[in-house]
Design brief:
The chain has 240 residues and is α/β, with parallel strands linked by helices. It has helices at residues 3-11, 21-38, 49-60, 62-66, 84-94, 108-121, 133-136, 157-164, 183-188, 190-195, 232-237; strands at residues 72-76, 100-105, 126-130, 146-151, 168-179, 198-200, 204-208, 211-220. The chain is 41% helix and 22% strand. Strands 1, 2, 3, 4, 5, 6, 7 and 8 form an eight-stranded mixed sheet that branches. The longest helix is centred in the first third of the chain and has 18 residues, at 21-38. The protein is globular and about 50 Å long. The termini are far apart.
């Protein structure tokens, strides 16, 4: 099964469809470059094309099945570009360049790779920041300026809320990918969401390759207080 057939089959149960051959070509290029670069840089532990299409590409697109398309999107701690770049590719399939994407990571080599990759893909309206999230969120040019923040970072939900919600403007949403086994962690984040001006939306479940997953939307109701986000050491030591 080629990449086009695989990805189409994986996202069809989510009610998603990619229409343009160019979009499939970009996903294929992404997969190839990811495997090449991963040989010299730790971008992913998943190295088979089938695994990349399932665990990185299809899973990254889940927010598009449940949440409105944003005009702007920031991927916080983007690493190898997930879920930001797959979402950008999907949104561009119907309206090229209309969704602004910012890729944020503290590792310059990862950002350099993503810059080269998106240029090779010919993507429009993509920006890059090499900073820690807690520092970037205090930049007036970035703070509360995005319609959606996404993150697949492996950290607890209260910390993710503190790192991501300050980037989201009122009326926007932070979308987190979580396992169904994360119910207690998710519940513990409600206080953090409220402290940051957010409130949990309708949590949606989906299944991918036999694994049950959740999209946890946190809607931005009012501006985040100026003291957030705190330095990472304080976030880690004393979660909200």
């Amino acid at each position: 099964m080629n990449g086009r057939e695989l990805l189409s089959g994986l996202i069809a149960p989510l009610g998603l469809e990619i229409r343009k051959s160019e979009t499939f070509d970009r996903f294929e290029l992404y997969c190839a470059r990811l495997i090449e670069k991963n040989a010299v840089m730790n971008l992913t532990t998943i190295t088979s094309p089938d695994g990349i299409y399932a665990r990185h590409f299809a899973d990254s697109l889940a927010p598009a099945a449940f949440l409105p398309r944003p005009d702007s999107l920031i991927d916080v701690g983007c690493g190898g570009g997930f879920p930001g770049i797959p979402l950008k590719l999907f949104f561009d399939d119907s309206a090229p360049g209309e969704t602004r994407l910012m890729l944020l990571d503290s590792t310059a080599k990862k950002i350099d790779f993503l810059r080269e990759l998106t240029e090779e893909m010919g993507l429009e309206n993509v920006e890059f920041e090499t900073r820690r999230a807690e520092d970037a969120a205090r930049d007036p040019a970035l703070r509360e300026s995005f319609g959606m923040a996404v993150s697949r970072a492996v950290t607890a939900m209260p910390a993710l809320c503190e790192l991501c919600l300050p980037f989201v403007r009122v009326g926007g949403v932070f979308s987190a990918h979580k396992s169904v086994r994360s119910a207690e962690e998710i519940e513990s984040a409600r206080r953090a969401a409220k402290a940051l001006g957010g409130a949990f939306g309708n949590i949606r479940g989906y299944s991918l390759c036999g694994a049950d997953q959740l999209i946890v939307p946190v809607e931005k109701k009012k501006p985040s207080p100026a003291e957030f986000p705190r330095p990472w050491a304080r976030i880690k030591k004393k979660p909200l």
